[in-house]
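Hi there, hope your week has been kind to you so far. Thanks so much in advance, here it is:
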Amino acid sequence: MTRKFNGGEFEALRALLLALEDVQRSPPEPIFVAVGELAQILHRSRPEIIAGLDTLAGLNFIEGPGVYRERDWLFRRLTRRGAALADLIRDPVDWKRALDAYAPFFAR
């Protein structure tokens, strides 16, 4: 069974991916993601941020190692696939056009 997403979830994933892009380091090393602080910055709940991180990792857009002590997350870097996605969704005008074009598919 395929999980249905709504536009708000896509906005949250976009904001999360772009926020992670800003904090990744070169060369890649694990970064402690304070989920509570990130939730406040992105105006989301802790469970939404954890679910978003898990989703991005599961879709191979970011590398973990992942959950840390059941409350926070260790993030290493965006994958090549994640960096390519960030490039495509960075511009808000392009992002809105993409959401508008695909909105009928989200509603199914």
User: Anything to note?
Assistant: The chain has a mean pLDDT of 85. The CA atoms of residues 93 and 101 lie 12 Å apart. Residues 7-23 form the longest helix (17 residues).
